[in-house]
Design goal:
The structure is a single chain. The chain is mainly alpha-helical and about 375 residues long. The protein is built from 16 helices and two strands. The protein has a two-stranded antiparallel sheet. Its main location: membrane.
């Protein structure tokens, strides 16, 4: 098993590099980089100021052939050069006899553009040291941003996964035992409806029904805690926390709950029809002893071993829209805002961390298989 784990760990390196290469290459073809975003903000603020001042279009310069960016109307080239250097698209190169620090204002120094390939290798070298740089627009280290938003996403992912397992496993077992009965039929219909409803649409429905929309105002609309959180007792904080996360967790659980229930049912049905179950019944064992003493361990193998992957799927998949709808400041919302603003350090830093986590979780899933059923030997199969 040790050799298998070592091979999987070594495989993480080329896989992670491949993920980063593909996404880095895609960003090179996406129009509107971070400098264009800054230019748009600066020009938008300038237009508002001119309109307020009554200047209209007076003083605006038409774009010239020297403009390197669309919309850079009258912005000084020195400002654009400084932005490129600051964001890592260029570096300052000075003459050998220049004694001072690199400075674009010095006549002995000039800007040197850094190619895409070189920028990628510089970025990956920093990421190997877990140096993800700072956000372009927030001037905050990416690590601090991720650490700040992580508790919200962990809350959604962990509670949603636990809730899905607590409901789906008993329900799936009962559906397998009562396969073909009216109970199995109507619960299957409810599960299909739950699976068909998108999580964000179900979140909106919950808000309308229970968060002061058109019916009842039972749960809060936003945030994980109330404004008076610090003043509450320990028990009051726990109740307040559960009160705030109820709707987001239920909304993010709906799809995974449906999938896991059907997976549990089908897994149990496969085991119930096997020869060893027929033999156990022929020996006179009770149905409960057959089900939980023999079938349960084999049937739950794929369900329990899939816990890490399911958690990661809920953690990353449903968080963006759920966090936006319920105004939760988590990783999903951070990634969405970074993509819109072309905040490359946040985009690639979080992508690197999440990709690494996903690959490690894949190894943990294999280890869970071995833990649940020691008969499985991945090393022998690989050989």
């Amino acid at each position: 098993m040790g050799a298998y784990i070592l091979r999987r760990l070594l495989l993480i390196i080329p896989t992670l590099v491949g993920i980063m290469v593909v996404n880095f290459a895609l960003t090179q073809f996406v129009p509107g980089g971070p400098i264009e975003q800054i230019i748009a903000r600066v020009e938008g603020e300038a237009d508002v100021f001119r309109n307020i001042a009554g200047g209209g279009d007076a003083g605006m310069q038409a774009p010239t052939g020297e403009d390197r960016y669309a919309g850079a109307r009258g912005l000084p080239p020195e400002m654009l050069d400084a932005l490129e250097v600051q964001m890592g698209f260029a570096r300052v190169v000075c003459d050998p006899d220049f004694a001072g620090p690199p400075d674009l204002a010095a006549p002995e120094c000039r800007k040197q553009t850094i190619g895409a390939a070189e920028r990628f290798f510089i970025m990956m070298g920093n990421y190997l040291r877990f140096d993800f740089g700072e956000s372009f627009f927030r001037s905050i280290p990416v690590v601090d941003l991720v650490a700040e938003k992580m508790p919200v996403s962990i809350t959604l992912g962990l509670w949603s996964t636990l809730l899905a397992y607590l409901i789906s496993i008993p329900l799936g077992i009962r559906k397998a035992v009562r396969d073909g009965t009216p109970f199995d039929t109507w619960t299957s219909g409810a599960i299909i409806v739950g699976y068909a409803i998108p999580g964000f649409l179900f979140a909106v429905l919950l808000m309308v029904l229970f968060a002061g929309g058109s019916y009842w105002k039972i749960f809060p609309l936003r945030g994980l805690t109330s404004d008076n959180w610090a003043e509450l007792s320990l028990w009051g904080k726990a109740i307040d926390y559960l009160w705030h996360i109820t709707l987001p967790v239920v909304a993010s659980t709906i799809a995974s709950f449906a999938t896991l229930t059907l997976l549990t049912k089908n897994s149990f049905l496969d085991e119930i029809n096997k020869q060893y179950v027929i033999t156990a019944r022929a020996k006179g064992l009770t149905e409960s002893r057959v089900l939980y003493g023999h079938v349960f361990r084999n049937a739950m193998l794929i369900v329990i071993a899939g816990f890490p992957s399911l958690f990661l799927g809920v953690f990353f998949g449903a968080s963006i829209l759920i966090e936006t709808i319920f105004s939760l400041d988590g990783l999903g919302r951070l990634g969405f805002e970074a993509a819109v603003a072309r905040d490359y350090p946040v985009i690639f830093g979080t992508l690197y961390v999440f990709g690494l986590m996903g690959l490690v979780v894949g190894i943990l899933s294999d280890l869970m298989y071995v833990f649940v059923d020691p008969r499985i030997d991945f090393e022998r199969r690989a050989g």
